[in-house]
């Protein structure tokens, strides 16, 4: 039984379309990430670099899984345990306006930063949340 050139071309075209569709779907399901310093998602498949620190966000507070910090790279895993949208931002020596995307209830996002000696401000950048108590200062020594 001979396979015609037209049948081969059709099969190759179908395979190519299916492959491209798979790539597009994989890119879209990345949770909106795309840059190395932060990504939002359900908490699965996220790359952790350096020391992992969990930040539990609620209305209206931040709870960190550790209290002492030495200079180095940290990945803050922000877990929205609250009922409304939150996010996490870090500001301090060498780190300016690093933040996660907005995090919905029950979701997580990661933020990887390199901390030097000094004091850093970790807070929720959603309008008014910092002023309501979602603000922690950490000292890196």
Description of the structure:
The protein has 141 residues and is an alpha+beta fold. Helix content is 17%, strand content 38%. The protein has one helix spanning 5-28; strands at 38-41, 51-58, 61-64, 72-80, 89-92, 95-99, 108-115, 118-123, 135-140. The strands form two sheets. A five-stranded mixed β-sheet has the order 1-7-4-2-3, with no helix packed on it. Strands 6-5-8-9 form a four-stranded antiparallel β-sheet, with no helix packed on it. A hairpin with a 2-residue loop joins strand 2 (51-58) and strand 3 (61-64). The radius of gyration is 21 Å and the shape is globular.
SSE layout and pairing:
Layout: H1 5-28, E1 38-41, E2 51-58, E3 61-64, E4 72-80, E5 89-92, E6 95-99, E7 108-115, E8 118-123, E9 135-140
Parallel strand pairs: 2-4
Antiparallel strand pairs: 1-7, 2-3, 4-7, 5-6, 5-8, 8-9
Distance between the termini: 76 Å
- Most strands sheet: 5 strands, mixed
Give the helix/strand class: alpha+beta
User: Would you tell me the overall average pLDDT?
Assistant: 79
Multimeric state of these chains? single chain
Helix fraction bin: 10-25%
């Amino acid at each position: 039984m001979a396979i015609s050139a037209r049948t081969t071309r059709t099969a190759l075209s179908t395979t190519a379309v299916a492959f491209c569709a798979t790539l597009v779907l994989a890119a879209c399901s990345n949770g909106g990430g795309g840059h190395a310093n932060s990504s939002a998602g359900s908490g699965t498949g996220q790359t952790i670099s350096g020391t992992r620190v969990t930040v539990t966000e609620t209305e209206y507070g931040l709870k960190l899984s550790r209290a002492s910090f030495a200079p180095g790279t940290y990945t803050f895993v922000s877990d929205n345990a609250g009922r409304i949208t939150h996010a996490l931002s870090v500001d301090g020596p060498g780190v300016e306006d690093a933040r996660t995307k907005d995090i919905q209830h029950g979701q997580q996002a990661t933020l990887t930063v390199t901390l030097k000696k000094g004091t850093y401000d970790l807070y929720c950048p959603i309008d008014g949340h910092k002023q309501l108590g979602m603000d922690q200062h950490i000292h890196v020594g």
